[in-house]
Design brief:
globular; 12 helices; 301 residues; eight-stranded parallel β-barrel; single chain; alpha/beta
Length: 301
């Protein structure tokens, strides 16, 4: 599958990000049925066996007329499952693999062997250059304001620097919360927009009702960027930081330690202010599609 073929299967050029402890089969399937690409982290399942169960469920529930789905793999020495999970992705021919914390050419070749695509997330130009050398199909520019482990650069600066050397697919992440932001990303020479926080309070999200309520009551002013939770800079809901004692860590945390921290300290991006209620994924997607179409019409006028 080429990037153009992937895009042709979407109603709008948008991807719902793989959110740790948030994204599961229901969120992924309903997103794809609504016409956007739904994704999830392999590590949202505690074992590779559980991960395979999810892959079976998602592939059984989706058909050829639905948008493709994707899986996030943490490509780092701290993840002992990466090879086992990659083998399962190859077995089930996952259309899109999103890699984090390492761009590896062998992984890219394995995904290309069955016709899949690899997008890699970065927060700065140096990481993007390494991803390009590894042969990825797309680069996800994680700009300031994104949920989770986010960068600090303006989306204008980050996309411009990457486009100086990269003519492949470019995906823009950071505070995306309105369908018009998809059109704005395209005007900035990105090919896709990357949504996250807007879906944390979806009915199909795996988070607690308390976390959904905090999303609804929060806005951009309630987001804190800190490296004190996991050792790496990330955006979190300030009220959840205040309610939980920060973990005692020295430097980079293990994946198990990080998972424990994220259960009580909740991540979100600057786009959280757009979350007004708990709604079905389909309703969120339909709103984004309508807003995107309106933005394009207004620009043409």
């Amino acid at each position: 599958m080429t990037v153009d073929e992937f895009k042709a299967r979407l109603r709008v050029p948008a991807i719902v990000a793989p959110m740790f402890l948030v994204s599961g089969p229901d969120l992924v399937v309903e997103t794809c049925k609504a016409g956007l690409c739904g994704t999830f982290p392999a590590l949202n399942q505690r074992t590779s066996e559980g991960f395979e169960d999810w892959l079976k469920e998602i592939t059984d529930r989706l058909g050829p007329d639905h948008a493709p789905f994707g899986v996030n793999l943490i490509v780092h020495k701290s993840n002992p499952r990466v090879m086992a999970d990659l083998e399962l992705c190859v077995k089930y021919k996952v259309p899109l693999i999103i890699t984090s914390l390492g761009a590896v050419s062998d992984l890219v070749q394995a995904v290309h062997s069955y016709g899949g695509l690899v997008f890699h997330d970065v927060i700065q130009r140096r990481h993007a250059e390494k991803a390009a050398e590894a042969g990825v199909d797309g680069i996800i520019a994680v700009a300031a304001g994104a949920g989770g482990h986010a960068g600090t650069f303006s989306p204008f600066a980050l996309t411009s620097e990457i486009r100086e050397f990269w003519d492949g697919a470019l995906i823009l992440s950071g505070s995306m919360s309105h369908g018009g932001h998809i059109a704005a990303a395209q005007m900035m020479r990105a090919d896709f927009a990357y949504f996250g926080s807007h879906f944390i309070a979806a009915e199909e999200s795996m988070v607690s009702q308390e976390q959904k309520a905090m999303m609804i009551s929060s806005s951009a002013k309630d987001i804190t960027y800190t490296d004190q939770v996991t050792g790496v800079g990330a955006n979190f809901l300030t009220p959840s930081l205040a309610a939980a004692a920060l973990p005692d860590h020295a430097g980079e945390m293990s994946l198990n330690e990080e998972a424990k921290a994220w259960k009580s300290i909740w991540s979100a991006g600057h786009g959280t202010g757009a979350v007004k209620a708990v709604r079905p994924v389909r309703a969120i997607c339909e709103q984004l599609i309508a807003e995107y179409d309106e933005a394009r019409r207004n620009f043409c006028r």
